[in-house]
Fold each of these.
Amino acid sequence: MKKIGIITILNVNNYGAELQAFALHHKLKLMGYDNEIINYLYYKNPEYNIEPDSKPLIKTSVKNKLKDFVLKWLDKYSALKYPELAKVRKQRFEDFHKNHTALSRTYQSYSDLYNAKLEYDTYIVGSDQVWNPNNGTNLAPFFLTFAPKNANKISFASSFGVGQIDEVYYPQYKEWINNLTHISNRESAGVEIIKRVTGKDATHVVDPTLLLSKAEWEGLMVPYESKEPYILFFIFKKNDYAENLAYEIQKKTGFKIIRVCKNEMPLESDDKILNIRDFGPLEFLGLYSGAEIVLTTSFHGSVFSLIFEKPFYTITPSSKNNNSRQESLMSKVDLMHRLLREGDKVDLDKLYDINFEEVKPKLEPQIKLSVDFLKKSIN
């Protein structure tokens, strides 16, 4: 049997990243392919060893360097301040992959990965923002340059995370993309970038989380028990517009508000919004499944709203035009009216106006196309 190795972003204490990594691995297993995730630690993982070769080839802005530093510091601070919650949360994330995901040995550095004698028949770079030029690391591993020269190398739903890249980086991206045998991308903007940079046609596929059905996700989740209906607030940072919208919906419906947090740090007092701070990926799925309404700023927050068929609004910053991931997904299912920019007025009389029976037929052909792309590329 052919053996497949997948490289993607995981082990970063992020619900979307862990679940998308699992989803591609699990779907391939269901399709009959022996596969495992090449456990190359992402540069944001505290156990990753930075080396000269792993430093970004594309210069990282001072703003993004500062952002990475602050986020790392906040994660460490929250774990030290709330050790019991941090311990439970960490264990739940670790148990999720231990029990559900086949992982290779851990590669803690760039040289560790490139010096390994890997013997997979096919290599896949998976989804998430693995090609984002703002990532503070060398992106070469996510174009499978560590794989043997003549190996079958596939990108599945890889994302740039931005609507465009500076032309000065085109030569480097062209070299990287040309290393791949089969190319797909998660966003229409990404397909256009690949065409501009290389002249090649990439296939537009769905995020791996959409390859699994609602029933398959429900079969994995840890149900969340709530005596009263709730609005799920999947927003990691303080956001006045989103909070005010949540309170407006609460006033209209009487539902309580539950925030799922990025780490152990609470963002509100519990009498206003209940902060969930120690859930792992399976508990997160249960929280989603039980929600009445979802407010999110997250791409995967939008995806799981579609999977679990929850009325939702995705909120994007008014100051940025970098919303290509959300726009691509929403236009695909004709739900652009559920994509809000901060400051937009919302008609709450249309809170439940999503007809998921009309959404399904728009997603199903995209999912089939994505599965077909995997089959053809692997075989």
Amino acid sequence: MNAKQLAAEKAVAYIQDGMVVGLGTGSTAYWAIHKIAERVHAGLHIRAVASSEQSERLALELGIPIVPFSQIDEIDISIDGADEVDTELNLIKGGGGALLREKVLAANSKQFIVIVDESKLVNKLGKFPLPVEIVPFAANLTINKLTELAGEVNVRSVHGREFVTDNGNLIVDCYFQEIANAKQLNQQLNLIPGVVDNGLFVGMVQQVIVGYADGTVTEMGVS
């Protein structure tokens, strides 16, 4: 069992009967969704909402009951991965392009659990390019403003075509190298007209579960 899978299985153990569960997106969330499906087939009764069309398709294929957001008022627990986690449990997310929906789920969850392997732990955020979701309208002007902040930015593309999010927007990856003040930068980015949201998750996590290559798992919580 790999480190991501170990962390995912530990997180899924927190899900209880009758909960509304938020499903994350990406390679680590993939393992959590599979484990949740295993528990559903064993008799666990939950309702789930997904942070991406990709995760929703996977959940439905595996037999996890997905409900429309209009049928819920809040989420009991969301489980998702991260691209970086700092010592204060702030995150960079969005490597999979679903940062906006992931943030909506996290902000509306009683408990937001992040699962990672040890490679995602950092002292300071920023080595991983920070994804920023922007509207296509006048994108070049928004990108100019982001370049003033970050210095180097790239519009994300896949197979030579601009990557488009589930919301119909673009992702700009910003190369900060080191983010001195994540809270301040989060506010600066979201004040730029044309920016929908960014991949900084500041003060949103209750618990981080880390899987290690040696087979051990540790848990870090907000003090």
Amino acid sequence: MSYLVKPGRTGWADTGRTLYQLRWLGEPVTQQLRPEEVHAEIPDGTWDMVWLCVSSTALRGSWLSDLRNAIGGATVVSIGQDLHDRRVLEEFWPAEQIVQVVPSLFAYSAPLAGEVPAPGIAYWMPLGSTLEVLGAGADRTRSEAVTTVLRAGGLRARLTTRAGAGEGIAALTVPYIAALEVASWSLPTLRSEVGPAAEASAEASAIVAAQTGVRQRRAPKFVVKMTLRLLPVLTPFDMARYLEAHFIKVADQTRLMLDDWIAEGEARALPVTRLRELRSSLPARATM
């Protein structure tokens, strides 16, 4: 497997990276990732699949045209969940070449708080969770191949034709992430003021449902509060630190999603009051 990374981040090509599979009970399972190649520029070659493991804002970059010219007919796999990510990709590749995967695991540069013995990449897949591989629109052979690769890596994966599943999950969750940023990444503060975030989530979910036809089942506020209370003890890592570290890194994506929901909601004459209030509460840029 080869990797395309940002300039200056190719130093692990020879040494590889240490992976830690976190477990709720027991010590992390240590694994070694040994890449075939690590590149800072798009290399020549023939590829079976190209996985776009980047934020939605990164997909708006000019580099996609260079990638399109280099990979030919390789399957393009996206984990993007913004309302318009699919449309962006279809400007460069035909729909049948694109496979969407709905992520359901946590991964980050460790350690956050001493949960692993040495620096590496920690990951955790909650018990019973499954990665959904969207087969609608894509050539089914491509979707099946992506599912097979994920299972070969020890992950649970299943084919689905439920277009908009990832976008629906983002609509449910990202407004809470934005509200958490406004609350200075304090889970207790968000829990005590969860109402506006829940209403923003409802607005975003209605907008995604209007565009995609997929309706997500929303949890009542008391369930959200209970979840926020239990999160720190249900995960084998410091959830509050993870959320802050990860979502500051992709803060531009949070703002992009809010902006897209607001614009789409206004175009469809759907309520966006809470989304607007949440968006205006966020600073222009996140800071550590």
